Batch of 2 targets.
Target 1
Amino acid sequence: MRRALAGPWVSILLTLLLLTGLSHPAWAHAILMESTPKLHATVTGPDVAIRLRFNVRIDGSRSRLHLLAPDGSLHTLALARQSTPDILQSQATGLKPGAYELQWQVLASDGHISSGKVAFNVN
Ligand SMILES: [Cu+2]
């Protein structure tokens, strides 16, 4: 009886071990926790401070910020030196009024790249 029941339990245990141990740690992916400007916020130009806070440490030297302008042009934003490992900062200057999209691509501490977008408006 014991022996007969052991089979399924061993399978379940092994499956759990595989799921928790061997699969790549999803918790280490960079997830955007907080942004300045906030999503869909309207901010005052022409100069706009950019600040993105993530759930994990970010490799700033291998992360990129781009700004899509209302005229469709894409601009690379220079990243400020990282003062906190989970925060990226930049300054967008000379922004005319209109709808913008901040596009981020970051390298997280687990070695994986993730990306996202934050739309905002400048008045
Ligand atoms: Cu990952």
Target 2
Amino acid sequence: MTLFNLFGKRTFAHGIHPEEYKATTKEKATRRLPFAPEIIVPLAQSIGKPAKSIVFKGQQITRGEIIAEADGFMSVPIHAPVTGQVKSIDIVMTAKGEKAPAITITTSLSSGQLILESDIQQDYLRLSRTELIQAVKNTGIVGLGGAAFPTHVKMSIPDDRKIHTVLVNGCECEPFLTTDHRVMLEKIEQLLGIRIAMKCVDAPKAIIGIEDNKLDVLSAIKPHLPDDGSISIEAIETKYPQGAEKMLAYSLLGIEIPSGGLPSEVGLAIFNVATLAEIGALLPAGRGLIERIITITGDTVEKSGNYLIPIGTPIRYLLEYAGVSGQEIELILGGPMMGLPIQSLDVPVTKGTGGLLVLDKHATKQGDVLPCIKCSQCLQACPILLNPAELGQLAAKRLYDIMEEDFHLNDCFECGACSYVCPSNIPLVQYFRIAKTLNRERHLQDG
Ligand code: SF4
Ligand code: SF4
């Protein structure tokens, strides 16, 4: 049974309504950013295994050719985002503040940057499911909504599970971000990728779920949907975190994904809309993922907008181009709720980067952390009905094992809604991230 809000829109229980801050960029059509003189391509761009470099220092490479091969099932290949020369294959700083191997390319700015033509024009209808999933893997695609999970792995449904519905996640519930919004308006023909996903997981129907702050998408897409009703589009309440898989499944269909379980256990396969749009373009052309759209926005950005950017473009270049004023800025890759604060301007855009948020440090300064006043606002916010206040108290006492065993810490997907509402400025979600990391390390030590 689904829940409905006051206006009859489907929704889920709890959650929050943060200020959207989307008006500055949602009306702006996507523009291509000029190529940066240097591109840094990390070999680890998904939560799977890093790819293996197959190029050497000094090698000339052409935009679109494979420069790193997948290393096993949980890995995807990487294609050259630009034509140029391999400057180095070295250890660089990543957005997570860790060091990792990357291929640095000096861009050939005079080359015209045409993409290497593939002779594998693929008619997806003629491929078997196995061949199709392999073709998806060959594109190097991972979840573009931020999770960066290899898409072909998600599509490899175990034989004992039957998928009845593909859910296409077009909610984009994080404030500030509007890339999925633009993709749905500008790349309607590429939503062929939905058909490809349906075939890969053998599902008879698909539902595109959008928040009701994107009704222009509803009217743009509806005329293009097939007459047989196999693909539909539904607006659900604009509420954070509506785009989380559990919330989307519940709001659209009233289906609960069990604690610790996968969507396929309840007959669902869930994909981000931009991921499927890319597959719809790349797979028939036999091409790899070399660029993506990201939202660049924030208080101090002169040219806020949605930009098509080669993967590997350094953040420093984006800031220069978009015109960022002020010295005291805070940079976040992704949205303000679940994004990653970054310290170095030399880290590059990767496949999972959906946004670059530039905020004035003074405006974002949090107040002092105060004691919990037991107001229960965090309990009202948590979309999976955890008790963040109690978890926070346990974290303060370093009782991480009790958090996991008795208070379902691992169900927390770090949406940050509890921290957002806390009047005492308790950084609950940061506590939970630390607790999970320490628990993982403890389990590894225990064998
Ligand atoms: S961060 Fe975790 S505990 Fe806090 S609201 Fe989100 S899911 Fe609940
Ligand atoms: S919102 Fe903050 S102050 Fe209120 S109960 Fe939760 S942790 Fe305590």
